[in-house]
Fold each of these.
Amino acid sequence: MSAPPSNVTGMSNDDMTGGAVGTVIRPGDPEWESARRFHSGIGEPAAVIRAATVDDVRGALRYASAERLEVMIRGGGHSAWGGVPGGLTLDISALDDISVEGTRVRIGGGALWGAVAHTLAEHGLGISSGDTASVGVGGLTLGGGIGWMVRAWGLAADQLVGAQLVTARGEVVEVTETSHPDLLWALRGGGGNFGVVTRFDFEAHRLDGVVHAVYGLEGEARHILGVLRDVMAGAPRELTVTYMDVPPMDPSAPAGATVTAVFIGTDEEAARRALAPLAKAPGVTEREFGVQDYPDVLLETPEFDPERPMPGFLGGNTLLRELDDDVIDKLVAFHEQNPASVVFLRSLGGAYGDVAQDATPFPARDATWFAMAGAFDIPGMIDDEARTRIGAAWDAIEAQGAGVYGNFTVSTDPSVAGRMYPPATMARLAAVKRAWDPGNIFCRNHNVRPEADAA
Ligand SMILES: Cc1cc2nc3c(=O)[nH]c(=O)nc-3n(C[C@H](O)[C@H](O)[C@H](O)COP(=O)(O)OP(=O)(O)OC[C@H]3O[C@@H](n4cnc5c(N)ncnc54)[C@H](O)[C@@H]3O)c2cc1C
């Protein structure tokens, strides 16, 4: 891939490609340091274009094509692969309009979920997104999106009913169930492989608040996880829970083990009933319990600090059909053997499982839990032998899963996409890719290659 010619440095105008192109920022430009930053690091692209309009996006893609640059689309900037060097980073964060008509919500392709939640709350509405305000609508939705209402309303992608997309050829396409059903199917979990989504159309749900509860866990982890599993097996769909055990060096959450629960609506008694066996379990302490506005439940995570870069992560994630005793044992052992490790579980089932497997590319609709475990690769603390041991411990957990969730992976190695999509799904995604991005300029992601085939 060639770097952009030197005469485009700092351009913010129309004269390079014969039309709007947004603001082009190159190494050495005053804004370069801020332009190449993403949530968890500093990227090394050949150039960054900040696009503020659909025309800018079209111009940026013409520019990328003329310069033979692969395109990395940046919405909320929270993916872990923003640092893959080279290519053009197309920053669409300025495309952040949000409009509401009844329950139909149109959201700019670069908007953040916190802003969406605030706007929707004014209308008594909600969309299930994720747990963090600064995460982008684009990456989370296109990858699936496992949020606080996943058991009642499904994935973020399940609430997507249409989109406006700029294709690799620079065409602007309105995507609906009737106009381009295959493309809409691919956008519900197939990632940013098919074009730049400049607007997402969602069907929102009525929401007047949530009951939010946090429990501190000092008891025996195996026992508590068993209780939590049994609670969720019979829980109403309004309830979704997250279990987290976080080491002190992780700045994203307070250290220690917790369960956080969100129950849709304002019925505290119903929430208490559903959570009672957990609340009564030995070593469990209620830290918070009460009705909140949904936007207030979303977390704010710290900005990337170059003085304290996050260490690498050894481990992975998987969608589990069953949280059986054996998996619980393995997850707890993973944490016990690696004190600098995170274990994270979020409940699934309910509406998530109502969606037919072939209705979206998202894997494992029969999963009842999402699980993630990773040890921090801290220099001086982790050596090659430990890396091998941790890798093997994780592989044994993933072997019991039914698929990998791409949005929580840290690599775009082709083997990851192979573990996310079963062969038949990959073949169907590749057919959509051939139709919309045959040259694969949108490849800086979990890439669906145009030539991929089921065979
Ligand atoms: C602190 C934190 C909390 C998180 N919590 C959750 C959670 O609760 N639930 C959950 O499911 N996930 C969660 N995630 C994972 C999150 O879904 C992914 O990191 C996701 O990729 C973030 O989207 P983004 O737009 O912010 O990232 P970006 O890095 O901007 O985008 C990621 C990829 O999505 C594609 N993309 C983004 N926008 C567009 C667009 N408009 N058009 C076309 N392609 C686009 C591109 O391929 C891009 O490489 C969390 C991540 C972090 C860091």
Amino acid sequence: MYQKVDTNLNFVDREKKVEEFWKENHIFEKSMENRKEGETYTFYDGPPTANGKPHIGHVLTRVIKDMIPRYRTMKGYMVPRKAGWDTHGLPVELEVEKKLGLDGKEQIEEYGMEPFIKQCKESVWKYKGMWEDFSSTVGFWADMEHPYVTYYDDYIESEWWALKEIWNKKLLYKGFKIVPYCPRCGTPLSAQEVSQGYKTVKERSAVVRFKVIGEDAYFLAWTTTPWTLPSNVALCVNPDETYCKVKAADGYTYYMAEALLDKVLGKFAKEEGEKAYEVLETYKGTDLEYKEYEPLFACAGEAAAKQKKKAHFVTCDTYVTMSDGTGIVHIAPAFGEDDSRIGRNYDLPFVQFVDGQGNLTKETPYAGVFVKKADPMVLTDLDKEGKLFDAPKFEHEYPHCWRCDTPLIYYARESWFIKMTAVKDDLIRNNNTINWIPESIGKGRFGDWLENVQDWGISVTVTGEHH
Ligand SMILES: [Zn+2]
């Protein structure tokens, strides 16, 4: 039917009229009712959090999420659209803490868990009405009367069911997660807390000689945290970079990155024209993988043997850069996120010779010494044994506890993981069957992410995450 369009048309007005028409005549409900016999196409909304206001970005996602179900409806499918609400998470708790004037886990417990949870459950509906109005205004259809809600028992039970299935498939395991940790307060800190306490510090780093097994040669590796050296179980090189075996003017033979030779060994050229080193051979990083060296500290060798795990060899990972050090990094899986990941990838032993108070343990020669106080002792001992190449002063930004000013350490805590690496091939195969638009997102960004998929740490750290 032809209808003349007024040149002074008010679009908002017209949209409101359509919105009213849809509401009064139950058009969404009818879109399903009229297609009862049709094939079902199910849509579950990725749930927003209703204790925050909708913003302009949500318009885009709601419109895109409406388009595909609407297309299916037009093709004759019966399309139930289930709305959902995400009611869990730290933002909810933080909001309620603020409202009640509470600060942290202890005060919440004093207030009482039950009433606190009740407050959280109320808080999550704060902007529900605004979300419903907004969804309707942008023409987003969904069954808002029967939403799924993540705090409902049936929802939580289905999550437990999923976890049990994962467990049955032997894909759930207990491992370690690295957290920023204050050894004085005895608690992990959230990313936001860590960001509050950065300070510039000048410390001694260490360039260490690791003796290659079966060769009169050494790997040169650099670390800014000498106290982690007693827990060393591997070295790491960048698989794509070039490495050299060189005879240096100090009489030793070293393995290190080609790009850093002059920076590290250049000091041996005392006079003009004198050669600081002679390159004997060059390698790709991958050529060095699994090359073995002698444990730097006997305690780490003993721990590896006890755990019946292979250790003290060269690993490969692209996180190693050529900007500092020697291009070879020392790996202690208990004390760094990258280290921990490499530890999992290579099934390295887990060696954590530091206790919850930040003191080195009795297995090491520094029993009871605080990590930062152990640094100079480690350097002195390595020097005595001829294992210390250099201990250059190093200035960097280092996080400190915002409560007590203690330097934080990166420290492994027990955590549950889902073994995503075991299903990587399935993930990639499934991704390849998806009709991504634009294609570059599925093949590029998401595809790359799947190629590098890591095991998924699902434990929530409760203590100290509350500020
Ligand atoms: Zn502290």
Amino acid sequence: MPELPEVEVVRRGLERWVAHRTVAEAEVLHPRAVRRHIAGADDFTHRLKGHRIGTPSRRGKYLWLPLEDTQQSVLAHLGMSGQLLVQPHEAPDEKHLRIRVRFADTLKTELRFVDQRTFGGLSLHDNTPDGLPDVIAHIARDPLDPLFDDEAFHQALRRKRSTIKRALLDQSLISGVGNIYADEALWRARLHYERPTANFTRPRTTELLGHVRDVMNAALAVGGTSFDSLYVNVNGESGYFDRSLDAYGREGLPCKRCGTPMRRRPWMNRSSYFCPQCQRAPRVSS
Ligand SMILES: [Zn+2]
């Protein structure tokens, strides 16, 4: 599942290759890829036709292409295996090509949505006054957003009576942090994932947010993380940040700080990776 850095890499690719281009026509090759567009495939292609794409935008893991002069946006759901590729017209169709968008210009490239497992798709939505697709209006700002409010996040942590990893994955508090970067940031901050948030101090919150941002910026710098050979960025290049992960996926390997074998524990239908020495479990209180 792509996380914020991967989605931002895709967004930057789209900004470079498809922003300000006018749609000549869209073609839906598999109806499942537009199932979130309730009015159906014909309506989807009709509404895109002739419109210019604005600057691709992102909040957390959500990515959208505004359609200029419409107050609507095309929301991309990458799902488990969705890819947005910019390809030359003459490139052979990918086996799992679901949607093709051709442009009314002479650049000789087209946008393709390719998705093996078809959990993802594209859909058109009305924008909120903030310019967000209405279906994601409840998603909080992400930590790389200049308008993210650290103090409000801290207060929310204190109020929530949650545990820290659960809070980091709560998209109504902070968006864009998934399982991988939560484990990485918690390892850097030496915090156990079950630490209660109610007694977080302001310096602790500030330090943790700093680690969240560092780990995301590091991933961005190398083009996102790839755990799945299916994930590639907009130009078809695979990310390779996985080589520099400190926690995620390192069960049994020595902690890079203290050498203690890292552990993996089942956590909310996923896994948490942590160092039992550096990230001490909180004392159980009933
Ligand atoms: Zn350690």
